[in-house]
Amino acid sequence: MAVELERTEQVRAKIQIKNPLLRNALSEFFGTFLLLFIGIGIVMQFILSNEKLNTWININLGWGLAIAFCVYLCSKTSGGHFNPAVSIAFLTLGKLPLKDFLVYCVVQTIGAALGSAAAFGLYYDQFVKYAGAFRTIIGTKATAGCFCSYPALHVSNTTAFFDQFAGTALLVLFVCVVIDKRNGLPAASHPLLFGLVVMMIGTAYGMNLGYPINPARDLGPRLFSYFIYGSGVFSYHSYYFWIPVIAPLFGAIVGAWSYTFFVGAHIPEQRETTYVLVDEANQPLKLATDA
Questions:
Q1: Residue ranges per domain, the chain?
Q2: pLDDT at position 102 over 60
Q3: pLDDT recorded at residue 270
Q4: Minimal CA–CA distance to 173: which of 98, 109, 245, 261?
Q5: Residue in 238, 210, 226 with CA at minimum distance from that of residue 153
């Protein structure tokens, strides 16, 4: 074990990236890749098994766990955004530079596209068994929904827009709750709490679109699926595709600032109380603080 650890440290010393933006961009790419590789796999298992191996609650639980563990993965580098909506919220809050935001959006989308491609490769035989040679967006053997969101025809684009706006606003609002140091939530609990927030949103508002609430999560796989299903992935439902890309950005900003205006700015500062510990002879031992 000691020899393996030494080798690990040797490799680390040779390949460690010093540039913060490059380091964080690599983390965002890899974290989003893994998130989509796991998450898309969950959806594929649901659809391609005729909804026998997974249920709707399994999808919510699986995505929540995927979020939690992928954020744990990148918690000490980029922090694990994996979502341009989260990144734009941090940009407006002054927690992320504009240059970093733009780079994050690109690498997150590429990571999502490649993650979905990897999941497709792993489940390719199941696609063939389920739908044969046909790859369709709608119909009894439609499989395009394995990759990204396609609302039912009775769901209007107006409803879809506000669905994504509201869902992402909830996500980012509670992200702000979790990371606000004044709330005193242990840092080690943050990734798990983020996963629970995603589960909550899915169980409440997953009916319309399947709660993508993440431009990279929807656009990346849609770009990859274009090579399988054709231009219909963009023209479907009066060019619905732009809604899960744009609406979450606005929802994220509103969610972040609604927390600030309604709650965050009004949390009282904690006052530090100093105690003097004494021994049996009433002599001071040390100072202790209680925040």
A1: 19-263
A2: yes
A3: 80
A4: 261
A5: 238
**Higher per-residue confidence, 178 vs 10:** 178
CA distance 222 to 265: 39
Contacts of 12 (CB under 8 A, 6+ apart): none
Q: Tell me which amino acid residue 137 is.
A: I
Amino acid letter, residue 88: I
- The rounded percent of the chain whose pLDDT value lies above 70 is 91
Mean pLDDT of 31-52: 97
Q: How is domain 19-263 classified at the architecture level of CATH? A: Up-down Bundle (1.20)
Question: Which whole-number Å values give the CA distances from 114 to 121, 142, 221, 247, in the listed order?
Answer: 10, 21, 8, 23
3-state DSSP of 52-94: CCCCHHHHHHHHHHHHHHHHHHHCCCCCCCCCHHHHHHHHHCC
Structure tokens at 254: 């509103």
| Segment 259-275, tens digit of pLDDT | 999 999 999 988 766 55
- Give yes or no for a contact between 216 and 134, defined as CB atoms under 8 angstroms apart: no
